[in-house]
Amino acid sequence: MDLALTAVVALVTIVAVSAFSSRLGVAAPLVLVVVGVVYSFIPGVPSIDIPPEWILAGVLPPLLYSAAVNVPLVDFRRNLKAITGLSVLLVVVTALGVGLLLFWLLPDLNLAAAIALGAVISPTDAVAATSIGKKLGLPPRLVTVLEGEGLVNDASALVLLRSAIAATAGAVSLWGVVGDFFYAVAVALVVGLVIGLVTVFVRSKLKDSVLTTAISFAVPFIAYLPAEELNASGVLAVVVAGLVTGHQSARYFSAQDRISERLNWRTLQFVLENGVFLLMGAELSTLIASVDDNVLSVERTLVLALLVTVVLIVLRFLFVVPLIALLRREGRRAARESGRFEAARRRFDAMPDDAIEPHRRNRAALFFTRRAADLDFLQSEGLGWRGGAVLAWSGMRGVVTLAAAQSLPADMPYRPQLILLAFFIAVITLLLQGGTLPAVIRLLGVRGSDEQADRQEYASLIQDMSSVGVEALKNPDLKRADGGDYDPEVVDRVRGDSESRSAAASEVMDASSDVGPHEQYRELRRIVLDAERAALLDARSAGSYSSRTLARAQQLLDIEESRFDQATHD
Predict the structure, then answer these.
(1) Share of the chain above pLDDT 90, in %
(2) pLDDT tens for residues 451-504?
(3) End-to-end CA distance of the chain
(4) Are 417 and 109 in contact (CB under 8 A)?
(5) Across 180-194, average pLDDT
(6) What's the pTM value of the predicted model, to 2 decimals?
(7) Measured in whole angstroms, how far is the alpha carbon of residue 179 from the centre of its chain?
(8) Cα 98 from chain centroid?
(9) In angstroms, rounded to a whole number, what is the distance separating the alpha carbons of residues 313 and 395?
(10) Predicted pLDDT at 1
(11) List of residues 6+ apart from 485 with CB closer than 8 A
(12) Cβ-count burial of 567 within 10 angstroms (0-12 exposed, 13-18 middle, 19+ buried)?
């Protein structure tokens, strides 16, 4: 009963804090950590001590999966260099740097154990950073890099932690650690890719959105468990499966499947993300009670945490500086390459149609189009030094750090203090860096993409889509399923719908223009939808229609309102 009551109170707290944090201008995770800390010191409340495997194997896979399915694969590919540097190289550098520091400061701690703790506190938690960044309008590429780092660095850190723990017992050599790392990554990539493709195929054969969404809840664990059994990175397998699923969903899932899955996963992600921060704060009193002051006091642990936090910030800044320089150099190289590439593209377009086999011409045309888009991205979405400063300051640690620390061997020297040290570092970075990140963003004047350019790009895409759709209606072989011809009036009606949507998209290109006919249409359509909704509620109150008929009408109206709201927001 106490557990159920605690869970209900926690859920209500999460919703309440999330609802009011936006008004306060503070990210919800930061407030929840403070609320959890306050809770932990209330006399008489139940102590909270969650087994670390519950977080690492029960919460982390669905959290990473829900984030991965929403990261466009093309954006991940274009930022792979930055993501790999931050999530792999920086993790290794941080683990070694912090490990050497702790090895020097704590005489009873051997080097392998010190590096293990360095691996624990090396991964950043991108939840707070991306929530702040999206709210303040950070450039999309910067948000993608932060999200990608948060997805992959947990895997790097946990693999490195496992190898370091094995080294504490003298079970592996340096080359064994390197080999284990590459094995864990390679096998995880294969497992994640296979699971992602297989589950997408299976779910595409189901015709029930409830069933496909239910299976999606199992996908993170279907990817995680076999990878862990093979001594690979289950976390990385989950990320790969999520990226594959998100990329393939537009092709193989129905619209209703995507709507249902998006809503359900957003809800689950909201509860898990915010719940783990509340849980992290609520464990503080339990962690303090486990510390033996005769070995290393709480006060000295806090001082050590402050010192390590400074080292973490310095290491991240030192790493980000050459990374930004490399990305800026990449943008300049793309600008030089664009001219040569366009010349090659014109020579290709000028070649006679019979000079190349059709399928090879199509593949080459796709290559030219994709490469041109990549070069344009590198030039237009470059990361400057101000964006680099925001990236460097976004090094908050989170609940994974605390959960990984609790998985340290029981016989490790200073274990209670090391767990508390990891907690202090996570809280300090969340409150210090997360709390000041909005001010840093405003001070540096970092802004997102141009809204007018986004509207023009959106209108251009809708026009391209509508043009292709209208062309399909001109196909002379267009026939009904039974072989008959379509009624010309119906064809004109469908063509008009597509052209109307294209015209509506073009209308929003100029935000300063007068309200056009399509905007007026939306206003009138909203009036009609509201009236239809009122009529439906009256019919339900009167009981003049059966429940099943009312339910079908409700679903139809919900879908139409959802489409209307989406179009209005766009």
Answers:
(1) 17
(2) 666 666 666 666 766 777 777 777 777 777 777 777 777 777 777 777 676 666
(3) 46
(4) no
(5) 91
(6) 0.83
(7) 29
(8) 27
(9) 7
(10) 46
(11) 479
(12) middle
Task: Give mean pLDDT, residues 8-13.
Answer: 85
Q: How far out from the chain centre does Cα 287 lie?
A: 30
Q: Quick check: 217 pLDDT over 50?
A: yes
Print burial letters for 281-315: b (CB count within 10 Å at least 16), e (below 16): bbbbbebeeebeeeebebeebeebbeebbebbbeb
In sequence order, the 6+-apart residues with CB closer than 8 A to the CB of 386 are 444, 445, 446
What would the two tokens of residue 472 be?
A: 């399909």
Cα distance between residue 46 and residue 39, in whole Å: 10
Q: What backbone phi and psi angles, to 5 degrees, belong to 7?
A: -65, -40
DSSP-derived letter for residue 138 is -
Q: What is the mean pLDDT of residues 16-39?
A: 81
Q: Show the tokens assigned to 318.
A: 């030192």
For residue 566, give both structure tokens: 């989406």
Instruction: Read off the tokens for 494.
Output: 């469908």
Interior angle at CA 77, CA 76 and CA 81, nearest 5 = 95
DSSP code of 482?
Answer: T
How far apart, in whole angstroms, are the C-alpha atoms of residue 322 and residue 85? 11
**Residues 6+ away with beta carbon under 8 Å from 398:** 29, 124, 125, 127, 128, 276, 277, 280, 426, 430
Average pLDDT, whole number, for the chain?
Answer: 81
List pLDDT tens digits, range 284-326: 888 888 887 777 888 899 999 999 999 999 999 999 999 999 8
Instruction: State residue 508 phi and psi, 5-degree precision.
Output: -85, 0
Provide φ and ψ at 511, rounded to 5°. Answer: -70, -20
Residue 290 tokens read as 């486990």
Number of H helices, E strands in the chain: 25, 0
Of 160, 423, 164, 412, the closest CA to residue 309 belongs to 423
Q: What is the mean pLDDT of residues 136-152?
A: 83
Residue 270 has pLDDT above 60, yes or no: yes
Angle between helices 415-429 and 298-350 (to 10 degrees): 60
At how many degrees (to 10) do helices 60-68 and 209-229 cross? 120
Q: 546's torsion region: left (phi>0), alpha (psi -120 to 50) or beta?
A: beta
Token digits of residue 519? 């905007």
Give the Cα separation of 36 and 278 in Å (integer).
Answer: 5
> What is the CB neighbour count within 10 angstroms for residue 362?
11
Residue 529 C-beta-side C-alpha neighbours within 13 Å:
17
**What is the rounded CA–CA span in Å between residue 97 and residue 248?**
40
Per-residue HEC secondary structure of 385-417 comes to: HHHHHHHHHCCCCCHHHHHHHHCCCCCCCCHHH
